[in-house]
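okkk here we go again. third time trying to get the zinc ion bound version out, last two times i messed up the smiles copy paste (missing a bracket lol). double checked this time i swear
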Amino acid sequence: MLYLNKKIILGVLIFLTVLIFWFVLEKENQKAAVIFLDVGQGDSQLILLLGDVQILIDAGPSANISAKLSQHLPFYDKDIELAILTHPHADHLRGFISIFKDYNVKSFMFSGANYESRVYADFMLALKSEGSKVYLARSGNAVSYQEIPILKILAPLRETWAKNFKEIHESDIVSQLNLADKKFLLMGDAEEELESALVTSNAITDVDVLKVGHHGSKTSTSENLLKIAKPEEAIIQVGRNSYGHPTPLVLDRLTQFGVKVFRNDQVGDVIYK
Ligand SMILES: [Zn+2]
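finally!!
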């Protein structure tokens, strides 16, 4: 009996040692990263910062986002410090409903523009019961980490709260992420008109990586934008779809500008560490 107890105690000690060792190793392996999650036809970008701080921009079209996040977040971390919805189309929005169930979203940023859809109405109820601190995005705002502004909000350029838009992409949140030595321009579903307004207002500067607007639709990624943004690499968040995304027009244009393209439908998650 005494012998059995000793064996059990030894087993528990070995288990605890392995657990602590693994936990320390996992902490040491943590690096800041930007991950363009493969969520099928839709958008989702996960920004991992040291100290278990996460920013999630859009949540893709389905509940699969929760499983996706669990691949990249430590098992013990169920907090998302900031979530951002670029605009209320379902392929960017629907995943948030399961995120609210599985994670604690501390802060939420969106445009608050009017938009009629069942999924957006469900989302608004879920956001309210989540109790996140809500921020409205506006150009000139910035999100800081350790007192350094790392995410600059470039659009919307005007007030969006409770406003009606003829085309909801006009209310889209465009941002620039500066992390380590890389600059990422995150377009959401911005189209040519908004791109051009951003170029005209000098909001666009030279970046390293472009998250291509609207899944490579022909209505986005104008020459005007590429000339100023001068990205070396572009990410197209796209899955199987019937819209013809990404269009050959945009792919050719990116090639002409010498931009190396990574597509979620071809390579899965795209990770910058
Ligand atoms: Zn959209």
